[in-house]
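Hi there,

I know you've been waiting on this one. I reran it after we fixed the sequence typo, so this is the corrected version. Both the input and the resulting structure follow.
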Amino acid sequence: MFIKEFIFGMIIGIANVIPGVSGGTFALILGIYDKLIEALNKYDKEFLLIVIKNIFNFELIYKELKKRDFIFLMNIFLGAVISIILTSKLISYSIEHYYEYVYSLFFGLILGSIPVVLKRIRKFSYSEALFLFLGVFITFYITYRFDPAVKVIKKSEYYMNLYYAKDLVNMVEYEIQDLISIFFVSMLAISAMILPGISGSFIFLISGKYFVVINAISRISKFYLNDILIIFSVMLGIIVGMLVFVRLLKFLLNNYYDKTLSFLLGLVIGGLYAIYPFKYYKLIDLYQKIGDKIVHIPNYKVYTNSIYIPSLSSNLFIISLIFFLLGIAIMAIFMRYDKE
């Protein structure tokens, strides 16, 4: 059980690193979504009071943790954290150099997952169809309306001005504002990560914080103070956001299961636009902060949300199609495993 839950955690962690891909979607696909929401919801005021009153009674605290699926949550959490740390640099590199192939794989995985989620809806009537449509509309509108390239370019321009002006006072003020901003973005992102179809990484991307956070995680072994503060702000935002948001989801799943699941499925379908693999990009001179220095990266690709259809005979399309079919095949294997 530990190995299975740990692997599920790793899959969710990897999904959360890739912009447009939702960890919540994979929790739903893997069949642990309801249990995850239920377990997270058990950590409430009552648990906090028990811990405070019995701070040195480790046996009692351990019993309370066991009652609240602590082992399950730790397995998922450890798998997710370890996979994020191990793969953040690899995924960042893969997206930068093999964008279409990475997104083709995940497009196939998520498209192939739709029947898995659909069969969990017990009753599908007009009201469920309405909630499905609403979910599709919300994620499609968000991913179509907000261009992630805009924020990346704006932040790069800000660092460019600092790079040439050497304005260290303004840079310190900006970093304090940035940490506060990262905290609130993380609160919103964890809410998105919990919802299938809405990518927490995409929230980071459209806010201009994605590469700040992913680069801080990939450099964690270097112990830059700025990176540590960024990671701390992210963790704090995630904890606060999670405590607030999961209660609402638990209530909806307990009282409106089919409608909620239909809505969540709609979010998954609408989110396919965000991970469509063929998007136009802009080449920019990127300026970003690494450690205590601002560095200049020329001819850096920044992908927009404008899509195109490549030539069907091109190598790009053929290789992308192979990765897409691989994603479909992986989900077909999972569906067979799920039935067994």
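Quick highlight: Residues 2-339 form one domain.

Best,
R. S.
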